[in-house]
Design brief:
Layout: E1 8-12, H1 20-31, E2 35-37, H2 38-47, H3 51-60, H4 68-79, E3 87-91, H5 97-109, E4 117-121, H6 124-133, E5 134-137, E6 143-145, E7 164-165, H7 172-186, H8 188-195, E8 199-203, H9 208-220
Parallel strand pairs: 1-3, 2-3, 4-8
Antiparallel strand pairs: 5-6, 5-7
Bound molecules: adenosine-5'-diphosphate (2 copies) and zinc ion.
Length: 221
């Protein structure tokens, strides 16, 4: 690592199930930077039955994106908090060109910029398998997989003992729509960040520890 104190802004890019949340969490723990996951913030709001959560639910249930204005305001508010001053690992945001533009403008106004954008590349077959077997902790949002990363005790979180559940939008029909939405609305960000000179690709079809090692090496290079 360099000795400069330039804040590190990392945007995890990849299809649903590519491993963004898994990698973002490991990176956040290793680098001591907060993980900001738009999906987690929406689910937290839904759990608390806030107006934002109830609005988001209408879109999440179909695998559609929550409207840009709502999403941008929510994430910008989160990024303005003091714990983000040294940098942040963004997971699930931005997901549209309008969101990417809004983020760039806000960073630019603060004399900042996106540092690196890892793209996790995973085949569609593997994505569908991963989402079908994904289980999430109700209390701490830790991610498990029935086959690839099972908890020590069935149905219980290793970290906090919380109950593991299958997300409502991880059913095969909604997953198909989420993949469609990804290719149509989010994949254009690959070109956007490539043009900004910050994109790099990782083979996300490898075991998660291997992906993490390559990700860390690239970010610390
Ligand atoms: P995954 O990690 O499987 O890709 P997320 O947890 O990131 O899923 O997102 C779940 C859902 O939350 C999305 O399908 C969408 O409805 C909503 N969502 C999350 N992030 C955004 C965003 N940046 N813009 C719009 N909708 C979002
Ligand atoms: P995303 O946030 O991109 O939707 P997740 O990090 O939630 O993806 O991962 C989706 C599922 O795949 C989870 O059940 C997770 O445990 C599992 N998973 C993540 N990375 C890998 C990997 N490299 N190999 C196998 N399974 C993985
Ligand atoms: Zn937990």
């Amino acid at each position: 690592m360099t000795a400069t104190s330039t804040p590190l802004y990392v945007v995890m890019l990849g299809a649903p199930g590519a491993g963004k949340g898994t990698q973002a969490r490991m990176l956040s723990e290793t680098l001591g930077l907060p993980q900001v996951s738009s999906g987690d913030i929406f689910r937290e709001n839904l759990k608390n039955q806030t107006p934002l959560g109830l609005l988001a639910k209408q879109y999440m249930d179909n695998g559609a994106l929550v409207p840009d204005d709502v999403t941008i305001n929510m994430v910008m508010e989160r990024l303005s908090r003091s714990d983000c001053a040294a940098g942040v690992i963004l997971d699930g945001f931005p997901r549209t060109l309008a969101q990417a533009d809004a983020l760039d403008k806000a960073l630019k106004a603060a004399n900042l910029a996106i540092s690196r954008v890892p793209l996790l590349e995973v085949s569609d077959d593997a994505l569908i398998n991963r989402l079908a077997g994904r289980r999430v902790c109700r209390d701490c949002q830790a991610m498990y997989h029935l086959e690839f990363n099972p908890p020590a005790v069935e149905g219980k979180c290793d970290k906090c003992g919380g109950e593991l559940y299958l997300r409502a939008d991880d059913n095969p029909d909604t997953v198909r729509n989420r993949l469609f939405v990804y290719y149509k609305q989010t994949a254009p960000l690959i070109g956007y960040y490539y043009a900004h000179g910050v994109l790099f690709s990782l083979n996300g079809d490898q075991p998660m520890e291997q992906v993490q090692a390559e990700l860390l090496a690239a970010i610390q290079a």
